């Protein structure tokens, strides 16, 4: 067995470089699963001495370095196998209609591809000009209207995905222009801070000898996206992940999470410039994809692990879910009460609300309604076009 001691230490081979990247990624994967002291540099150094090319030795070495308690020790083998051992291809959901191509709605397929925004040729060479025979102007209008009214569950062609991307990119660019004006204490300014002036005057017998000023500071709203990827949302999650990817690529202060029975952050994977590495990360994060739903527990996990860091007076929380929850309604009431106290707005995107005659009858939605600023339908392009201006208005 070759070890790092037997290798030429002055020359880092491509294989060694790839392995180091895998080990560093594995340490991050452990931290995402609750390992508080996963020391990546120590793991790489230990493997350099113990050996990297024998699976069992690598497993034992990493476990001895990265595990700090009995629970971490017990979970380690499963996490090691998930990260390093080959597994079957990720589950894919295909939306297909008779005679039409399918769109891959797996989690990783929401990442950027090399064909986005490139018009498809029909193979005839005649193009899609307005003067083409058959009436592109008349037929185009009706087809566009039909596309907008098509439920996301039934979208199967690349044209619909490109139309969705164009709409979301326009929304993100408009959102980028929103600036919240907030008063802030300043050494100089045009507006007096009366409260501070009065406090300062106390030491001068009530005379306002020391003036205090305030100035307007422009800040952009912070977006937090919480996306339901449970089984009941499996045909919609793909399109909401497109929303998350586009917002993340065009805006700086966007934080994305997916949840089913637990909450997982995906912002780093969506921003990764390496599409292969990003897809690998999303494949790993999608463990439990299309499983059960625990909305209340997932929101409580967000409050426990992320709320203090992310929520403030200019943040807007967007929850995308159909509202079907296996947790009791009390849990979502408790979670949303805590979020409501710390954030500016809470919006709920529900794909089922686009259907005629929809009423929020589930216990989860009934419990959530008093705490949210808007229940917005978002099950097709038409409803999403109506919902996005409402989001812009509420975020101001």
Task: Provide a concise account of the structure shown.
The protein is α/β, with parallel strands linked by helices. The chain has helices at 14-32, 40-50, 55-66, 70-84, 136-149, 158-176, 194-201, 237-250, 267-271, 275-285, 295-305, 307-310, 329-342, 363-368, 381-395; strands at 94-95, 103-104, 180-186, 191-192, 213-219, 222-228, 254-259, 263-265, 315-320, 345-350, 374-377. Helix 6 (158-176) crosses helix 8.
Task: Explain this structure.
This protein has 396 residues and is of the alpha/beta class. It has three domains: 14-84, no CATH class; 181-219, no CATH class; 222-395, von Willebrand factor, type A domain (Rossmann fold, 3-Layer(aba) Sandwich), CATH 3.40.50. The protein has 15 helices and eleven strands. β9, α13 and β10 form a beta-alpha-beta unit. It is globular.
What is the overall silhouette?
A: globular
Main beta sheet, described?
Answer: 6 strands, mixed
State the domain count.
Answer: 3
Could you report the average pLDDT, rounded to the nearest whole number?
A: 73
- Strand content range: 5-15%
- Return the CATH class of the largest domain: Alpha Beta
Multimeric status of the protein: single chain
CATH topology of the largest domain: Rossmann fold
How much is the radius of gyration in Å? 26 Å
* N-to-C order of helices and strands: HHHHEEHHEEHEEHEEHHHHEHEHEH
**Which stretches of 5+ consecutive residues score pLDDT under 50?**
1-12, 87-105, 112-139
Task: Going across the biggest sheet, name each strand in turn.
Answer: 8-7-6-9-10-11
How many beta-strand elements?
Answer: 11
CATH superfamily of the largest domain: von Willebrand factor, type A domain
- Distance linking N and C termini: 62 Å
CATH hierarchy: architecture of the largest domain: 3-Layer(aba) Sandwich
Total helical elements: 15
Helix content: 40-55%
């Amino acid at each position: 067995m070759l070890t790092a001691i037997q290798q030429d230490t002055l020359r880092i081979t491509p294989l060694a470089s790839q392995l180091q990247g895998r080990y560093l990624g594995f340490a991050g994967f452990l931290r995402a699963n609750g390992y508080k002291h996963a020391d990546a540099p120590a793991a790489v150094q230990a493997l350099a001495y113990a050996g990297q090319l024998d699976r069992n030795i690598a497993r034992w070495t990493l476990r001895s370095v990265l595990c700090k308690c009995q629970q971490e020790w017990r979970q380690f083998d499963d996490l090691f196998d998930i990260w390093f051992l080959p597994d079957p291809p990720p589950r894919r959901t295909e939306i297909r209609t008779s005679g039409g191509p399918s769109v891959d709605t797996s989690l990783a397929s929401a990442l950027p591809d090399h064909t986005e925004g490139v018009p498809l040729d029909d193979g005839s060479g005649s193009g899609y000009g307005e003067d083409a025979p058959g009436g592109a102007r008349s037929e185009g209008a009706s087809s566009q209207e039909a596309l907008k009214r098509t439920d996301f569950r039934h979208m199967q062609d690349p044209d619909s995905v490109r139309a969705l991307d164009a709409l979301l990119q326009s929304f993100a660019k408009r959102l980028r222009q929103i600036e919240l004006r907030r008063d802030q204490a300043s050494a100089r300014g045009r507006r007096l801070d009366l409260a501070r002036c009065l406090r300062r005057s106390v030491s001068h017998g009530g005379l306002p000898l020391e003036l205090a000023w305030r100035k307007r500071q422009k800040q952009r709203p912070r977006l937090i996206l919480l996306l339901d990827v449970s089984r009941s949302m499996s045909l919609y999650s793909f399109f909401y992940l497109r929303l998350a990817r586009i917002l993340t690529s065009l805006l700086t202060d966007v934080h994305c999470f997916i949840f089913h029975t637990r909450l997982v952050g995906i912002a780093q994977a969506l921003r990764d410039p390496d599409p292969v590495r990003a897809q690998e990360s999303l494949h790993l994060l999608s463990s439990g994809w299309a499983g059960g739903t625990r909305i209340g527990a997932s929101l409580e996990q967000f409050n426990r692990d992320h709320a203090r860091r992310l929520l403030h007076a200019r943040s807007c929380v967007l929850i995308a879910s159909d509202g079907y929850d296996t947790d009791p309604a009390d849990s979502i009431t408790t979670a949303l009460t805590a979020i409501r106290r710390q954030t500016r707005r809470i919006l709920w995107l529900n794909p089922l609300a686009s259907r005629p005659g929809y009423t929020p009858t589930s216990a989860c939605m009934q419990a959530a309604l008093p705490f949210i600023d808007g229940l917005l339908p978002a099950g097709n392009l038409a409803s999403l076009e109506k919902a996005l201006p409402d989001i812009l208005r509420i975020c101001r």
